[in-house]
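User: My collaborator and I are trying to settle a disagreement about how two of our proteins should look. Neither of us wants to argue from intuition anymore, so we agreed to look at predicted structures for both before our next call. Could you fold the first one, then the second, and keep them clearly separated?

Assistant: That sounds like a sensible way to settle it. I'll keep them separate. The first protein:
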Amino acid sequence: QSCHPIREMADAAKPKMDFRTMFFFAMTLSLCLNTVVCFIGSLGLPFVKAFTLVTYRAALMSASVAFLYRIAYSLKPPASMMSIAGWRASLAPVMNSNGGHYVIYSIVFAMGRPVPTVLFPLTICGGYQLLTILNKHFPATLKRVRGDRLFALAQQEMHKMMAMCATMECSMLPLLIMELFTPARSVTRVFMYVNYLRRRYACKDDTVFRIKYTYGNAGQFHQQVWGMLDQRTSPILRRVPGIDKVLGPLKRWFTQGAAPMKTQ
């Protein structure tokens, strides 16, 4: 018990949270907690099941608000407020950022029924931000609950987790396509999501919320997923006569603007 005051002093010695840190802490905590309740509710458990939809949308809202807040304070207005070209140049970096993309992602899936797996990429990123804040501002408390080990492991495996996020994002497209054959069909959502994945493929941003990737950027992880899919499907698709005339232009459109993937 004598070590508790020492731990509390260690926490107190750490820098205090400013408003931005408190805001991201609150939003990412809300994201993670709502995702947990939504997932449990989706299993059909009594009482919790009733909160599936509200927690699903609350999780999407928490992530979107956090990303929009970062976009708001990162945006650099043009020298001339009346310049359309200036505003385009100012908006381009934030609209092509992870935050801008994930806001679109949240909007696409907020329009449909609750799909808890949709929340996983957002929650993984939110979990990283939450752990980073806790490690910086409450290291002794985090260590007490073995959270320091989780944080170290998360940092070590970050590239794998970001690759998992990219995989899960890509796996949502077949789900939306299958919904076209149900009463919940929405061609608009499919069109929006295809364009979203195209933007992700070309994304050069290596930060999400306020944390930086330990390796690569979002676009590289998405390129890896599509590259793997291409390797597995090419032998089968080559047997279909004339398929290259259809897929060729689509591939060129989809990959346009993407930087070549770096190899180690």
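The second protein, kept apart from the first:
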Amino acid sequence: ARSKRQLHNCTDHNSVFTMNGDHDLNVDLDHFGEQYNEKCGVFGVYNVQQAAHTTYYGMVGLQHRGQEGAGLVSVAQSKTPGGQGEFKLHRGHGLVTDVFKPEDMEALGGIHAIGHTRYSTAGGKNQIEGFQPFCVKYRMGNIALAHNGNLSNAPELRSFFENQGVLTQSTVDSELFLHLISHSKRQSQVDQIFDAMTQAEGAFSVIIITDKFMCAVRDPNGFRPLCIGRLKGRGVDGSDGYCVSSETCSLDLCKAEYVRDVEPGEMIIIDRRTVETGTFASLKLPAKFGTSQCIFEYVYFARPDSRVF
């Protein structure tokens, strides 16, 4: 009798729990879907011929991490040394194979690209403005971002920017990274990105691409996986290309060689120096707690053939 009374008390007008005439409990799953889903896939390539096509196959390999929508940003090399590249964005609802048609892939082109398969974390499921990657231009040039995870301090950050009069285009927490970067007082883009990441809390595996480099960042707790791959001889003039992915299974599909994981709290820079020397510049985010990787990557998120953590 006590359990029945407790369930009955949950059936008020504002509750996500309701009870039908047969005394069966119904739960409004849509209420929880936006808050507790953290299963997205991110993939990026640097210095790779037909970068958009490689990223397409990388996203297909990560399709299990998100089926609501997909997006891709490609970057064509600047025609002038030190100039800004041409960033092209395409995104839509549905599976990767539904969103990207042959004509879309031909239009994207480029030698760098990042992609995202969406399984909503925070933000409207049907708002195309909230689909990643995000691609903007600010005082330091072009920047595109793809994020897997959930920011625990998103409400505080959003409130701060709203009070500053900042305009936002979505309710997705991932967009806040761009505002943190653009409002940073640091002088270089690398330092601005690092500064932004130190202010974010929660789970984040992020790939960012700019006019001059691509970087991969993993939160200090290491909640979500992120790995680096090498595409031998598939870059400009036969040089090596590089890729970053949520899981190693997408590296296999792209025929990339696994190099290593991005460590918890690590920010990796992939640029022309990486192409020439095969080495990565690495920065370390400050850690408040120890590593605490998500067990759901083993039992729910990741594919069985992926190498996780």
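Some points you might bring to the call about the second protein. Confidence is low (pLDDT under 50) at residues 1-18, 27-37. The chain is about 25% helix and 30% strand.
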